[in-house]
Amino acid sequence: MEYAIEVKNLYKLYRVGDEVVRALNGVDFQIKKGEFCAIVGTSGSGKSTLLNMLAGLEKPTKGEVIIAGQHIEHMEEDELVSFRRENVGFIFQSFHLIGTMNAVENVALPLSFRGVPRSERLKKADKMLDLVKLKKHKKHFPNQMSGGQQQRVGVARALVVEPEIIFADEPTGNLDSHTSEDVMHLMQDVVRKEKRTLVMVTHDNHLAEYADRVFHIIDGKIVKIEENHHEKEESLQEKDEGSTGKKTERNPVKKDERVQADKNNKKEKERA
């Protein structure tokens, strides 16, 4: 079995005054290549700390982090910067688009750090925007796009460097529930088509249903790992579409559930 990510006996301790806080408390798991995994937990559960460890943004107190076959826990900062540039893509909650650049230019930006010639990077960016269904918005600036469209640009930007792994930190945190579902469908489909590994951090159990596997984290420990059987759901969906002639929603969420989800998201942001 070939793994994109391996985590072994991972600990992260912080000292707050005289108290030692265990942000991560002995975490072990593997993520296969091409897998979409969600790490789910409430604020303070350790999910963001874990994502930072996987991305090499923080160093563990103890344990091993193996990404794309390389141990990153002992890498120096310049090695980590180079490693992330070559192997990792990021999708952020707040989009982080450059306001003075249009969609194509924003997507092409990571390629400029690799020294890719302008004509080539714009061509690749153009292709990625087609992939995320923004063909008509390539010349639009961020303030001319909706939140959902901006996040699609963010997804295209993460993909343009052809990363081994994509990390997504609350990628729908600034979107309403309907737009969130659209973006999640997009991420799910694109990851499968491009055969990328995606690790998403979220507090939303509804969004985690789009992942192949869900890691539940509480107090710095992975307490449960669930599998979502999308293939079975999709075959049933196709059968239903064939008999009724109507397209069914892959992960249907009732209107009242969407409203409640929006309320919960708002409360979570207020607590954060």
Automatic annotation (TrEMBL):
Pfam families: ABC_tran (PF00005). One of its GO terms (cellular component) is membrane protein complex. Coiled coil: none annotated. Residues 228-272 are annotated as: Disordered. Keywords: ATP-binding, Nucleotide-binding, Transport. Gene3D superfamilies: P-loop containing nucleotide triphosphate hydrolases (3.40.50.300). Belongs to the ABC transporter superfamily. This is ABC transporter. It comes from Mediterraneibacter butyricigenes.
